Amino acid sequence: MAVEQFLHGVEVIDIDGGARPISTVKSSVIGIVGTAPDADPLAYPLNTPVLVAGSRIEAAKLDMTGLGLGTLPSALDSIFDQCGAVVIVVRVAKEATDSATLANMLGGVDPVTGQYKGVHALRAAQSTLGYQPRLLCAPGFTHQRVTGGVVTLTGAAGSGYTDGTYALAASGGTGGSGAAATITIAGGVVTKRTITNSGSGYSVAPTFTLSGAGAGTGATFVPGLGNAGNAVVAELVGIADRLKATIFADGPSTNDAAAIAYAGDFGSKRVFVIDPKVLKTENGVLVTQFASAGAAGIQARIDNDLGFWWSPSNQLFNGIQGTERPIDFTLGDANSRANMLNEKKVATIIREDGYRLWGNRTLSSDPKWAFLCVVRTADIINDSLLRAHLWAVDRGITKNYMTEVVEGVNAYLRHLTAIGAILGGKCYADPDLNTPLQIAQGKVYFDFDFTPVYPAEHITFRSHLVNDYIKEIF
């Protein structure tokens, strides 16, 4: 309320109170990273998020020669076969070797300019373009499993070192490159070893050495080689956690065992794997194409047409003519190839009244987040509430303030229930958390719950043969 002052007349006071409406954040923005050597460098500068608003005309500048070089031209075409999506494109340089191109994809932060590079450039999309990508893919760079990578790092803990986290120097080895690791020292001894990059292609493991950790002695670092998860997917998981996004990753597209082994490399609710590749005609020639971009396009289409709480499974996969290897499927057949892959958390593509994406499950190790649509429902609701309450920051904590926030959230949850996005939900302020001590420190807590809509993945009809209806003859 305004400060009282003498006034002989009439005034109007604007009361800035009451619950605020909450809008759902845009869920269908696709973020894609890849190569396009023949792109217009002015339209698509390297390591820079570029907004393509559902236009094939804008996407055509990724392929100025019409030769379709790199991964981005065909991926954008596959996305736009599904819908007119909003796409954030990040182009990286294609190098003479695959390992150098992979390094560009993994990117990081330029130490001089502070610019995000590679897949990390997706993190800059919100601040530079005003759109946050929610559906991430990098076709051509997410299907490989690492062979001959450093997967374990053991050894003696040593003593007398300076506490802290240090990078190990990797050198030598045969046939491979790229391995990197860090260690954590506490109480003068090595307490943790972290492989930050497994590298690939080693037949003999590299040597890891420690420097700059004081005058300690005795620590050893013994690497073990083996197969490891895809490096680009591993890098994207951390980015997806920050963006509350889903990674659409490609399986190896070789055989079922390889696809299942690939799925076992990750336990993240952020990863959704599709296997195998699809067949598609490009420039009059039938070619194989990674399925992840098209799957992301399907999810964007479903978000726009039906809602973010819908599963992309059992939805038509437009623009394709088949799959790289046959995927047999029969409704009710638990031993079909499609069902076997789905059971191991690998989505696939079936032919049933057209080609359809088939599979609901993420790679989450926690069954609570098994279904992709449940993960995305939680993400969108959480982020919508977060972004809708900037107005509430730094306001005075009063009874009216608490009521306004709670009422605003409950109105939003009622709206989501009414449109079928959730089954129900409620927001409340827990007095056990909102103690005088906490409020005196400027801290206030609001709890909310909701029940997502689960997909009908397994439908059972129980058949009963009875004689009850013989009487209908007479």
TrEMBL record:
It holds the Pfam family Phage_sheath_1C. Residues 227-363 form the Tail sheath protein subtilisin-like domain. Residues 29-92 form the Tail sheath protein Gp18-like domain. Residues 364-464 form the Tail sheath protein C-terminal domain. InterPro entries: Gp18_domIII_N, Phage_sheath_subtilisin, Tail_sheath_C, Tail_sheath_structural. Belongs to the myoviridae tail sheath protein family. This is Phage tail protein.
